[in-house]
Each structure stands twice: as C-alpha cells, then as structure tokens.
Amino acid sequence: MITLKINGQQKNWDGDPDLPLLWFLRDEAGLTGTKYGCGQALCGACTVIVDKQAVRACITSVSDVVGREVTTIEGLHPTGDHAVQKAWRQLNVPQCGFCQVGQIMQAAALLLENPKPSHDQIREAMAGNICRCGCYQRIENAVHLASTGV
Amino acid sequence: MNIITNPKKLRGFERYVKVDNVSRRSILKGLGLAGGFVLAAPVMSRPGLAAYKTGAGEMPHGTVVDPRVFVAIAPDGIVTIVAHRAEMGTGVRTSLPMIVAEEMEADWSRVRVQQAHGDEVKFGNQDTDGSRSTRHYLMPMRQIGASARTMLETAAANRWGVPATEVKAVNHEVVHSASGRRIGFGDLAADAAKQSVPSVEGLKLKDPKDFRYLGKGQISMVDLRDITVGTARYGADVRLPGMKYAVIARPPVTGGKVASFDGAAAMKVSGVEKVMEVKGWPWPSKFQPLGGVAVIARNTGAAIKGRDALKIVWDDGANGKYESVAYRAQLEEAARKPGLVVRKEGDVEAALKGADKVIVGEYYLPHLAHVAMEPPAAVADVKGDKAEIWGPVQSAGGTREDVAKTLGIPQENVTVNVTLLGGGFGRKSKCDFAIEAALLSKELGAPVKVQWTREDDVRNGFLHTVSVERIEAGLDKNGKVTAWRHRSVAPSIASTFAAGAVHQAPFELGMGLVDMPFEIANVQCENPEAAAHTRIGWFRSVSNIPRAFAVQSMVAELALATKRDPKDMLLELIGSPRIVKLDSVKDLWNYGEPYESYPIDTARLRKVVELVAEKGGWGRSVPKGHGLGIAAHRSFVSYIATIVEVAVDDKGKLTVPRVDTAIDCGTFVNPERIQSQIEGTAIMGLSLAKHGAITFKDGKVQQGNFDDFPVIRMDESPAVTNVYIVPPGPDTPPSGVGEPGVPPFAPALINAIFAATGKRIRALPIGKQLEA
C-alpha cells in the first residue's frame, strides 16, 4: 500500500507502484484537471507541482512522490484565484484550453522560483509546455502580468 | 475597465482592434434543464432566411431558426442559449449565443450557454468545420434572438394592454416608456412562451449601431474560468460508474490487419482485465475504425502498459511499401507532365513558348499530423439497442449517424454528448474513436473510455495530404506575366471515401488552385493523378496550405526575376479591382457559398495587402540578417495578408521577431477571438514551415510524438504578432476565421528568409536547410 499526499489529502494506492502519477490522478483519484498530452514529458500538459517544483506527472511514478506534497490544479488555490489564474483570465489566454492547466502549473512553479522573471526567462521556462492552438504570446504576457501584480 | 495598467510592457498589444479586457463572470454552472424553462417547446424546424444568401441551407439539415429550440428563459430571468456547434478553441460556444443575446436584448451576465447534443433535425447542421459557424449562423442566430425578443415584447404589451409598437426590450427587460413601466424577462417568460413564433420575414433586426456585444470583443469565452481552474470537461475527462479504460493497438499500415496476436504477457500486467481483437474495416471506409487489439484495464496507465506487452503479427496489405522519398519523386514526375485540365483561359502553351523568360518553381509539402493537444478520446455506454457517447467531436450529427449505422440501431437511439474539444483542426471531424468506444462498450456490456496515445494520434490518424505544386510563369520583355501554368499533384481526401480516387475533388481544387485570382491572360491549372497510400483527411486550411505556399513563393520569385519589390509584384499580379470570373472552371467550389454573395473580389485582396504593408511597415529597414516577406491569400471566403520578419544568424538559426497580419472576414462578431485565432495561426504556420513532416517507410509512419514531430514552442514562437481586422462594409457578409490565417504564413516566412539570406526554400519543412 502506497500513501500519497495530494492537495493536502491522503490518498491510498494498492496497485502497481510504477503507475504514472498522471493516471493515478486522473483515473483513480478523479482529478481530471491534469491532462494527458504525450506520455513522454514532451508537452507539459500533465504538469503538477511536487513540493515546489514543476513535475511532469506522465513520467513520474506514484512511488516517486511518496512523502512529498503533490499539488494539482484542483489544489492550486482554494477559489481558483491564484495570480496566474487571474492573469490568464484577464488576458483571455486560452483557445481550446486543453494545455492551459499544465501551462498554469508551470507558470505558478516558475513564480515560486523566480517571482519577477524577464520575458526571456518566461520564454525559456515555459518552453516545455506545448500549446498547439498557439497562445504563446498571451501566455508570456499573462505570466508577466501575474509577476507584476494582477 | 482595462486592467492592463501598462500595455507597453506587454508584447503584441499594439493592435488595430483594441480589446478591453473587461473582467466579468464567466462561470458556467447550473445548466441542467431542471425547472422553469418555459420557452422550450417541441421541435419545429423552419428554414432560415437571410438577407444575403449563404451555403448554410445546402449543408445536411440546413439551419433551424426557432427560438423555442435555442432559447429558454427561467422565472428568475436566467436565459439559457443553446450552442449547437463544437468548441475547439475558436470561441464559437461563446460567439453564437452572444449573437442571440444581442438581438434579444439579453444581458450577457444573465445568460448561460448549454451545449447541444447531436441532433441535426432539431438544431440544424452541426458539422463544425470549414470555418463556417459565424458565416452560416450570424443571420439565423440574429433571427432567433429577434424572434425571442418579439415574443417577450408581445407578452409585455398584452399584459399592459398597449400596442406592441409602444414597448421595447432593453437589457433584459421590456419597457413601456410612455408610462414608465418595465418588466423583467423572467417575469415575462411564461407569457412569452405562449406567443406564436413570429415569421422570419416580418422580424425587425436591431440596427447595428445599437449593438452592445457584436463586433466589440469585450466578452470572454464562457469556458474561460473553467479552463483556468481545471473543471472544463474534455472528452477524456468524462467518468462513468463502472467505466473501463481501453487503448487499442491499431495496424501500423493503412489497410493492414491483425494476422495473429498473443495477449498472455499483457494479461499479466497489474490492472489489465482483458485483451481482445476489435473489428476493423477495409480501407477506404470513410471514418470507420482501423481495428486491432484492445487492452481493457482499470486505468489508462495499466492499459498502455498492457498494450506495450502485446505480441502482434500484422498483415500489412497493399500499402506496405509506401515510402516517402520514392513517393515524392513520383509526384514530381507527374507534375512535369500534362494532367487533367481544371481551368483554362487563353493558350498557356503558346504563351509560355513565346515568353521572353519562363520562371519555374516546384514546391513540395509533406504530410502533416494534426496533433491537437488532446489526443482523440471518447466514452461510450451501449445498453441493448441504445447508445450514449461522450466525446470531443467536431460533427455531433455525423457521429450520431455513424455510430447508429455501425451498431445497426436507429439514430434516435444514439445520444451524442459533445464535450469541449482540446483542439480539433479537422482531426475530430472523423469520429472513428467514438465508434471504437461504442463497439467496445457493446462487447463488454459496460461503459468504456477509449484513449488514443500521442503515438496513435500521429501514426493512425487522417493525415494532411502530401503535394508537389509546380508553377511555370511566362514573362514578356517588359516583365509582365503573360502565362501561368500550375500543376497540383496530391492524394485526395476523396481516397478516404472511395477506392481508386486519384484526382482531387472540386473542394480541394477550389482551395487556391482554380480560384487563383491574378490578372493574367493565359492561365491553365492541371491536376495530374496521385494515388493515396494512407488515410488522407482535412487538416486546418486543407489544400490552401500547399497552394498558397507555391503561388505566393512564385510571386516573390517573379519579383526577383523582374527586379521589383515583392509587394508591388503581388499587387500587380492581383491586378485591377474586379470580381474574378472563372467561367472555364467546371464545378467551381466556392467553400460551399453562392458566388453572388461571396465572389472573388480583388479589391478586398488588394486592401489587406495594402493594410498590412502600411501597419506592418513594409519596406522598413531591418538589422543585418533580418528580412521581410509578404504573402496574401483568399480562403474560406476571407482575405488575408501577412508580413513576417525573420532573423537568421550565421549558424542558420531562424527566429521570428515580428508578424503582422491583416484579415478581412466581412462582418465580424467577436474580434477578440479573431485576434486569438490569427495569433495562433502564426504559430501553426511556423510549426508546419519549420518542422512539420510525417514520413513513411515500409508503409509505416516514422514519427510518433513531439520529439520527432516537433511543433513550435514558446522559445521559438514569434516575439510579437499584430493583428489588423478590416472594418466591414455595411453589407459585407461574414466569412471564415478559423482557417484563413495558416496558408499565407509559410510563404511569407520563406520569402522573408530569402530576403534575409538569399536562400530560396521550395521544399518544406525548413528543417536543417538553413544550416547547409
């Protein structure tokens, strides 16, 4: 039996300890905010925050996060009003929206590490998150806006 | 209220259309039909009448203009408006209901949007592709709103005993200004529902000067908040009690099938419950599944791990030798010989022979995969002769029809619930993944979710065609183009529907080949044969991508040959402002629209070129290693022109400091979403130009994921994309937005690279060509 801490809550798992965290979150814990996009840490759609780091849940096994704090979009902010989320809404960032949870989690992790990133630092830090609709200009602006006060 | 305190700090905020980011509620909750929706009534379809004619009536099931189908008002005043088209990022789930709200004088903050299930008899055509939604539904949605408003006004007038002409709906209430009385929509709902639906012909539409929402761009997407908090529901997010999770190993070669398989090792994987062969259809079979071996498990991760452990022997069938290098040579050979003539004006042969100079350009574009961020996924629950589907489908009506046909049950027994689409780009017009879920659910007697992995998406989809476009242009001694021969060779989408289709269909020929708008005396377009060896499907912008690339590259090549500015050359070729006549084209396909409403108007094409040249600073001096390129194209009956600035360093590294695009999409509804679409098409255009190639060897796709089929990431994306929207003329009908942005991007980019480096790239993707 594995015990995980997700968004402050204990979750138990008695199945395959190698199961990617992504599928535990989505299919076993019902936390479907975290998305599957590639399964190989290439697109960032599954980004969650483990302790204070952005992590790709698709290549992280459940056993890897035992004893650590996992934060998903559902736990990012109690009312969904994290500065990043607010900035995203103010700039109408999304198109289809599918990658945006991963983008938001990546941006939130970036701001934990670097509260005032430059545009170039934003572009570098967000480069692991693919948006096929092409919302990058707004994502970049929204991260900047979140960092300078929404 | 504009929350951007210092727009200068944000990139790309210099815009033609200024957008106020008004913060407003966008929570979408409580949409259940429980209680109090009194405008809801039995289905009664009536044909839509429009002030301008569109092709909407020619689509399957046409349009339905009935407020009782689309609008419900609760006693508390909440107005629910049905969105019957699929949301894949264009904003249509917001824009169409907004049109209804505008006309009915509903207050947007008291509007809720409800997604229609698949039922084209009830809602009209739901096939969300071809950049058609606003173009086909602006007028029907206005009429629906005006009908609802008239019914509310009549109800109020009756209650007060005054003539209906004395009352007016204003912002969610009806007002009798003579007496100062007013009554809210909620209080009127029950009475309004008893009114007969007014005739479309007698409806009074609002004067556009009174519009509160249309054309303004201050309304955020209804799903915006849900997207940012993770509650927006896509296909794979649907969960049903007792649901099984499935992935399928599909034949790697189109037309292949399972010869034998061994599922013993897969069954040993923790969480795997069943391994089973699933039915496939012989190729071509429209959107029917490919078949293969399914692994059923308690979660998707276990199913994927189980699939990895399968041992399958495939029978590859007739396409086992498909190989991209050889196929390209075959297309090039075909392009160098005469082919089926699909447009002919003057005598191109004689004109080329008599030309002072002939410039030849042969352009190659490989297959592309859609790779929407959400790979296909669907949930099905089949019980007896009834089926319910949940999925990200572009065509809810088509899905219903195909699932019913496959299961052998009546369409009325199939419910298709449309989730949000995590990108569509044409891939999700094909409902094979929903059929797969239905077949598995029927077999297992339980709800099933089928999840495509990214590799499945890249290897088993419906690819963008592969093409060679060859253009020969003859110049006289004054540098005037007197002859234009364009041969386009590419496997057709028709090959996915019928075996042996070797010519492109009218809808493909009409995308930038036979509709070429230049004023040239001798023009001939030809379509040599090309046989398909994989499933070919619609990809955003479709054949316009290779055609615009070829035609607009050739414009720059002609400018070079005649020592002229590329923009001047482009304008000269477009020629005089006129309506282009295409009498020699049989079965001209004008995006399904009547030519009288949507002719090829060169004045509009000139206008976007001139606008983007002015706003984008054409001719401005740029640093060393930088270059500007321009391209223009008409597609989906919209006009668009793009200037790209590139920078190429001495190692051949390509960056894009700036993009400027002007679009004339006629009367528009939501400029904020138009802007986002155009920003996005610059990224998609850059992706396909820089990296995009799906190649085959031994009949199999050689790529599988974002490592070997890369798309543009933020660090490669244009630093700034500016969008300029041409204000519409008073009677200009709406035209497409979702797709027109893609085609001009690649040629503008390639022309800019030429300006920067002197290298002319004729085969995409760019890949390492600049490093050589």
Tell me about this structure:
The complex is a heterodimer of chains A (150) and B (772). With 150 residues, chain A is an alpha+beta fold. In chain A, 36% of the residues lie in helices and 14% in strands. Chain A has 2 domains: 2-74, Beta-grasp domain (Ubiquitin-like (UB roll)), CATH 3.10.20; 83-148, DNA polymerase, domain 1 (Orthogonal Bundle). In chain A, strand 1 (2-6) and strand 2 form a beta hairpin. Chain A is globular, with a radius of gyration of 15 Å. Chain B has 772 residues and is of the alpha+beta class. Chain B folds into 3 domains: 7-229, 2-Layer Sandwich (Aldehyde Oxidoreductase, domain 4), CATH 3.30.365; 235-318 and 376-451, Aldehyde Oxidoreductase, domain 4 (2-Layer Sandwich); 324-369 and 462-757, Aldehyde Oxidoreductase, domain 4, CATH 3.30.365.10. Chain B contains 19 helices and 26 strands. A 7-stranded mixed beta sheet of chain B has the order 9-10-7-17-14-15-16, with helices on both faces. Chain B has a 5-stranded mixed beta sheet with strand order 12-20-19-18-13, with helices on both faces. A 4-stranded mixed beta sheet of chain B has the order 21-22-23-26. At the A-B interface, helix 1, helix 3, helix 4, helix 5 and helix 6 of A face helix 6, helix 8 and helix 18 of B.
What's this, in brief?
Chain A is an alpha+beta fold. Chain A is built from six helices and five strands, in the order ββαβββααααα. The termini of chain A are far apart.
Rg from Cα of chain A: 15 Å
Strand content of chain B: 15-25%
The CATH superfamily of the largest domain in chain B appears as Aldehyde oxidase/xanthine dehydrogenase, molybdopterin binding domain
Strands side by side in the biggest sheet of chain B: 9-10-7-17-14-15-16
Low-confidence stretches of chain A: none
Average pLDDT, all residues of chain B: 93
CATH architecture of the largest domain in chain B: 2-Layer Sandwich
Query: How much of the polypeptide of chain A forms β-strand, as a percent range?
Result: 5-15%
Class of secondary structure makeup of chain B: alpha+beta
Principal-axis shape of chain A: globular
CATH superfamily of the largest domain in chain A: Beta-grasp domain
Question: What is the 3D shape of chain B?
Answer: globular
Series of H and E elements of chain A: EEHEEEHHHHH
State the helicity of chain A in percent bands.
Answer: 25-40%
Count of helical regions of chain B: 19
CATH architecture of the largest domain in chain A: Roll
Quaternary organization: heterodimer
For the secondary structure, the number of strands of chain A is 5
Low-confidence sequence ranges of chain B: 1-50
Structural category of chain A is alpha+beta
